[in-house]
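quick q for whoever's on today - can somebody do inverse folding on this one?? i tried earlier but teh output was garbage lol. tokens:
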């Protein structure tokens, strides 16, 4: 396998659907915008979607021998690869918690499973929503090469977004590493299906970047009042957890995820969430 810069060699992961390719033998190019009239390939067909027997229309060289001439979508391919790797580790980590320690805890919703929703790079850091049978959290991961090892588990941090300021808790897990979590829902009993939970998670990611919500999320009094509710709900939830898990294990697994801020939750879910009085 050649290490020549720009080589394709049949690796679709190296190129985006917008990649313009060039035959390294005769320098004939393939542009997805125009397709290939000689083989009735329609405009808009990505190089990776060409028929398996497609070859250079000029010299008959196989597709594997084409080079990347230009790829306007390369950044999106790199971003997708980063997000896939990071979210896969996150989902695997909490799926392990679900199977090992949480499955028999009374407050979990067994209709749900662990899923990463709406992750994107925000200022170079993966940001999205993690849905699980016992919580829904907004998750922020460190950027590639960024060292968050000094984060203090349980420490609070306020992070700003276009819609307002939100309180995150710092934490760390073996597979995920260090991360920051903003609690949206816990427990998850009000969700009837995984699709419903995912829909709310997607609404969160949309509302988070909408400036029209800022006035509702920047009220200091509301934040203080919400923290009082957080503590009361956390204590109630932990009392339920102890029915199926010892206190130390319950605190280790659930304490970072039990804080609920009702006003913030209503704003981020675009009114889909209803607080229980």
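ok took a stab at it. sequence:
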């Amino acid at each position: 396998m050649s290490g020549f810069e720009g080589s394709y060699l049949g690796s679709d992961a190296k190129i985006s659907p917008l990649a313009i390719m060039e035959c390294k033998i005769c320098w004939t190019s393939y542009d997805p915008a125009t397709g290939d009239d000689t083989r009735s390939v329609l405009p808009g067909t990505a190089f990776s979607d060409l028929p398996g027997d497609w070859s250079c229309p000029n010299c008959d060289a196989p597709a594997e021998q084409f080079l990347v001439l230009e790829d306007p979508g390369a950044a999106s391919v790199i971003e997708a690869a980063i997000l896939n790797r990071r979210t896969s580790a996150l989902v695997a980590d909490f799926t392990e918690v679900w199977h090992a320690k949480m499955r028999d805890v009374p407050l979990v919703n067994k209709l749900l499973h662990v899923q990463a929703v709406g992750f994107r790079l925000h200022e170079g850091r993966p940001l999205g929503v993690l849905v699980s049978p016992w919580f829904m959290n907004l998750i922020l991961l460190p950027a590639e090469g960024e060292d968050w090892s000094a984060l203090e588990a349980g420490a609070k941090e306020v992070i700003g977004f276009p819609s307002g300021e939100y309180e995150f808790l710092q934490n760390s897990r073996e597979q995920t590493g260090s991360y920051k979590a903003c609690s949206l829902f816990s427990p998850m009993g009000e969700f009837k299906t995984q699709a419903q939970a995912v829909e709310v998670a997607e609404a969160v990611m949309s509302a988070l970047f909408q400036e029209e919500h800022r006035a509702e999320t920047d009220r200091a009094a509301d934040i203080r009042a919400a923290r009082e509710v957080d503590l009361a709900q956390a204590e109630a939830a932990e009392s339920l957890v102890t029915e199926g898990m010892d206190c130390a294990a319950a605190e280790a697994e659930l304490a970072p995820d039990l804080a609920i801020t009702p006003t913030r939750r209503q704003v981020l879910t675009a009114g889909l969430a209803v607080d229980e009085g």
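fwiw Confidence is low (pLDDT under 50) at residues 1-6, 240-267, 269-277. also Residues 230 and 260 are 5 Å apart (CA to CA). so keep that in mind when u check it
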